[in-house]
Structures are given as C-alpha cells and as structure tokens.
Amino acid sequence: MDKVKIGVFGGGRGISMVEFCTTYKEAELTAICDMDDGVLEECRRFLKKHGGVGNVKLVKTFEELLECPVDAVVLANYAFEHAPYAIRCLDAGKHVLSDISPVQCLAEAVQLVEAVERSGKVYAFGENCCYFPGVMEMRRRFRSGKYGKFLYGEGEYVHDCAKIWPEITRGERDHWRNKMYATYYCTHSIGPILYITGERPKRVVGYELLPSPRLTALGYLKGTAGIEMIETESGGVIRSLHGDLHKYGLWYSVYGTEGMAETDRKGDTYRTVNEWIDEELNCCQPGQSIEDANKMQETHGGADYYEMHYFIDRILGKDDGGQMIDVYSALDMFLPGLLAYKSVFLGNLPVDVPDFRKKEERDKYRNDTFCVDPKVGGAMCVPSYSKGNPDIPDSVYEKVREMWLEKKRQKEKE
Q1: Is the omega angle on the peptide bond into residue 101 within 30 degrees of 0, that is, cis?
Q2: pTM to 2 decimal places
Q3: pLDDT for 200-211, tens place per residue?
C-alpha cells in the first residue's frame, strides 16, 4: 500500500483531517460524511480552495461512507457516539482514528477493545494535546531519564466555551456538550501527563465544581469544572483540572526525583518548556520535528498533523517510535474521568481504574453502563450534575439556536 485512503465522518471537527489529506503524500482523501448539507458545502468549498474536489465523495449517511473504497475512517462525529461507529468500522475491516472521546461507559470500553483485538486493524486515539511540540519535548526529555522517576504531575485544560456555545451546540437540548458531566472531558488534561511519563492510572478520586448560572443560562447541565486526583501504578500522583472556568489555558508539569519541567502558562503554551535541574532554570522552544506540521499551525498548534501522521505510519507498518496512542492508552486517558464521576456519587471515595489490556479485568465490567446517556446507560444512567439536573426551559435552547442562526446569517453575508 502506497497511500491510505481516508474517509472522514463529521465534516465540522473533521476539517483539519481533511486539510491533512490535501498535503500528505501518503494519504488520499476518498470520502467525507456529514448529515448537515451546510457542513458538506463548506467542505466542498475548502477542497476547491485546496486543489479541487476531484474524486472525493460527499455523503450524508455512515452506511454510504462504509460503501466507499476507504482503508481508514476518521471519527469526528459527536463525542458520545465514537465507540459504536468505531466498532462498526473495525468489523468492516477499516482502520480507525477516533477523536475525543473513545467510549461512554465501561461496557463500551470492553466492546471496543475486543473489536480492535479481533479485527487486527489499527485503532488510534486523537488526543491532540499530546502532540503539542512542548509536550513531545517533555516526553523526550523525561523518557531519556533526565528528570528521574516520576513523582507528581499536573494537567490543566481550562476553556471558557460560553462565547462559542451557540456555534458548537446550535441550541440542541440533546447535544452531547449540553449533557456531559463535569469530569467527562478529561483527556486534554490527563492524556499529556500519561503520554510524557508512560504512567498508568491505578485509582482516582473525583470532584465536581458547582454549576455556574451564566453557563446554565446557555443550556449547560453540568458542574462548571471537574478535578481528578489520580494515583499511578508506580506510586506517583496526578492532579487534573478541566472545564469552563474564566479563562483559556493549557498547562502541564511533571516532577521527578532528579528535576521538573512545565509548559509556559502565559507565553507560547504550545511550544515553550521550562525545566529545573538542581534549581537551575533552562527554557527551550523545540522546533517541529516534522516540517509539514507548520502548515497546520492554525489547527491546534499543528497537533492535528501529528495524530494523523502517526496513524498513517502505523497503518503502513513504519516505526512511529511508540508515538501513536492505541486503544489501551486511550482508555487509560479517559477512564479516570468516567470513574471520577462515580467517585463523586460515592462521596469522593477512591475508585480503581481497570487495565483493559487484561481480559480478566474486562470481564468485571461487561455490563457496566454507568453514564449520563439514557440510550446507553439504561438503569445505570445518572444525571449530568450529580445533585440533579437543573430545570432548563425550552426557551433557553431556542434563544441559543437563534444566536447561532444570526451568526450564521452574518457569516453568509461576508
């Protein structure tokens, strides 16, 4: 195989993966699927701007996408729905790159792992925060032994989404973003620390912050932010914070027995690394290790390039240096957030994080559907806010939808 034929499921979030395929010589964009005609039209315009639509098929259903001659599917659809579509792709003989998040519940995690194992296909997790240049440089330095044995790490992904809420939810009451719980969107904060250190979570304690009235007024159900305190198998500790607090920030730090390193809080948070060895500060800004990643700087600082690059490398049988995030590591990054929410319901007691590399561990959770989605959770479904979902009238969602439509009309006039 000289080129990997790619299908993208979800043309909104998936546009950066579409962009990747227009420049990468070993990837061939074959199809884009989205249920929204407007999104498909935007994809068509993007492709014309970047060399023409060519033979790329634009389809509206997943069934049509699977009928296209694709080797691999990028799942950029609604986050709650990645697992069932990933399983269908794997069972159809397609490689899969899944965007955030991999599953909704432990039962889905069992099903996903076993679909990957029986298919023999490549499953990659698109946790792009792991591929910021600064994070990759911290990984390189940590794994060289420069900081010694892991002791403690912190990851923060703080993103006040209030201003973009109409655009990303369109006033849909049942949109996954309106239903997610405080500790759900955890992989942007937990993932990079695990990626840098190679640690595996052992148990977790979860905390849920109070809801914010300004966010509830836009249709949020959840607490404003979530916190996970994680003990790792080696005895280290990780603090993870993520949610809609009053700022935007990505920040990662790791402490070892021989030194520590952190990304910049206020400067170039994607690239700058500050490290202390024997109390001596060293600052560095690593360059992109792959020149073409600079072409995608507007898309998460070039990180989307890397998740696709290592995915393609693995499919083609190349040595990716262990950079691709496989299904087991994906669950290591996500399950602490899910189980932290269980911890909240238990009064913040510790909850063990299973290792799904082990079949005997998986067997314990085959019927565990604890989540906030009634379609999946059934009798184990819980509210998105642990003390009960706030009562939000339809008028709130109607107002948010009108805000989105007005912005869309203005954009069309430009």
Answers
A1: yes
A2: 0.95
A3: 999 999 999 999
